[in-house]
Write a structure and sequence with these properties.
Elements: H1 2-9, H2 15-34, H3 42-45, H4 50-68, H5 71-79, H6 86-104, H7 106-119, H8 125-144, H9 151-160, H10 164-190, H11 205-231, H12 237-255, H13 259-274, H14 278-295, H15 299-309, H16 314-330, H17 335-344, H18 346-352, H19 355-368, H20 377-386, H21 390-416
Transmembrane segments: 16-33, 45-62, 95-117, 137-161, 167-190, 211-231, 237-256, 277-296, 316-349, 356-378, 398-418
Keywords: Membrane, Transmembrane, Transmembrane helix
Length: 419
């Protein structure tokens, strides 16, 4: 089905995604031919990211219940205020993203970006796109650093066997330091743009507080539902989130007495999203073929050899790991695939570094690349929404990825003093 989906959607995808998909398939074919995998295994190589496509098709239902409950007005209140200039707005936008992304994940990005697109419509496109791609993607990654639902953090804990409770304070420290540094830089970067931002501030503070409380309760309940599906029903996390979205959103709309509004908004939005996944299908399934072919290729062992050579030099190992995540991400390899490479030499790494140190290092360096991954889901969504080349988004966020990775290395070095 994955192969059929690519064949059907390749002609319908935008030219930039056709080019990217073609390159990924060509490199994947090279890795495949270099290995010993049989032709019968090829269909399985395209299956890895189909779950992500399923999740993408369901996201409009969560967005629709937020719109039906008029929670977008709450987000406007969080983003709003009397500030002139975009420096202060950058800080407020990043705080909003950090607050929401840990719960809404990708939905928070799409909602916030839609709001900011409308609210910054008076600004020049170049400035507006830079602002949105920086504030939302960076805030999104800062939330992922400590969220127990983030797959990269969960994978790093799985590799090392660390205790999440032990790791959590250090990951929060990375997130806090990253936020302080990036919000300060963003404030300075956009401070010269003093034009009035078209964001109405709320006049109903009491009502907003009540709505914010309802919003937080609903999101916590959603997390509880997902956790129960994962731990009691024993479902895969990604699948659990995907199948929980519509039933939860529908019940939420019923409790708010917004069922008709929810269906009226959600049905057209779901059809529109599902019928226009061409770019995502080409990109994600081509990327799946590349990463699976790489894992089955003899070239994988060459990527593991430098770790052995750096044994006894913790700082060099940390810098190498950060560099590897960045380079592999820019080449189109998902951080999870890179994490798998390091997992292959996990015993060597754990001999060189304490468990908590290694977990903080792997998680922070991998998550730091999220805003700079040209073929990553959040960058692709932003690219499509802003009609912006994904590599332009990468260039805007690459300094942040370097900075956040270095912050993670600094905190990892700090853990060496304790462990």
């Amino acid at each position: 089905m994955g192969i059929i989906m690519i064949l059907l959607n390749f002609p319908r995808a935008d030219r930039v995604f056709q080019l990217l998909g073609g390159i990924l398939l060509a490199v994947g074919a090279f890795f495949f031919l270099s290995g010993e995998s049989s032709i019968r295994e090829i269909p399985g190589f395209f299956a890895e990211n189909i779950g992500l496509l399923f999740l993408l098709s369901m996201l409009p239902w969560m967005n629709s219940v937020v719109k039906a409950g008029r929670y977008t007005h709450l987000l406007q209140a969080l983003l709003g205020g009397k500030s002139k200039g975009m420096g202060a707005l950058y800080v407020r936008s990043e705080i909003t993203m950090v607050s929401l992304a840990a719960f809404l994940n990708l939905s928070s990005a799409t909602i916030s970006q839609d709001l900011l697109l409308k609210q910054l419509k008076k600004k020049r496109k170049k400035i507006r796109d830079s602002f949105i791609s920086m504030a939302t993607l960076r805030g999104y990654s800062l939330a992922l650093l400590w969220s127990p639902l983030e797959i990269l953090l969960a994978t790093s804990i799985f590799i090392t066997g660390a205790n999440y409770i032990e790791v959590l304070p250090w990951m929060l420290l990375v997130a806090i330091l990253g936020f302080i540094l990036d919000s300060s830089i963003g404030r300075l970067f956009f401070r010269k743009h003093q034009a009035e931002v078209d964001i109405p501030s709320s006049q109903h503070n009491g009502k907003d507080r009540k709505k914010l409380l309802q919003f937080i309760v609903a999101l916590v309940l959603f997390l509880i539902v997902v956790v129960l599906l994962v731990n009691v029903v024993q479902l895969n996390f990604l699948f659990a989130v995907t199948i929980a979205i519509f039933p939860f959103a529908f019940v939420w709309s019923v409790l708010m007495k917004r069922r008709k509004s929810f269906l009226r908004i959600g049905w057209p939005a779901w059809k529109q999203q599902t019928n226009h996944l061409n770019n995502f299908i080409v990109l994600l399934l081509s990327l799946s073929f590349l990463t699976e072919s790489l894992n089955a290729s003899p070239y994988l062992k060459y990527l593991q050899q430098p770790i052995v050579a750096l044994d006894g030099h913790p700082l060099l190992i940390m810098l190498f790991i950060q560099g590897a995540f960045l380079v592999m991400t820019l080449l189109g390899v998902h951080p999870l695939a890179t994490m798998g490479i390091f997992g292959g030499v996990g015993s060597l790494l754990m001999d060189a570094l304490p468990t908590v140190t290694l977990t903080v290092l792997l998680a922070s360096c991998s998550i730091a690349t999220v805003p700079s991954a040209p073929y990553g889901l959040i960058v692709t969504i932003t690219s499509v929404g802003l009609r912006m080349n994904p590599y332009q988004i990468v260039l805007k966020n690459l300094p942040y990825s370097l900075l956040c990775g270095l912050v993670g290395i600094g905190v990892a070095l700090l853990t060496l003093l304790i462990y």
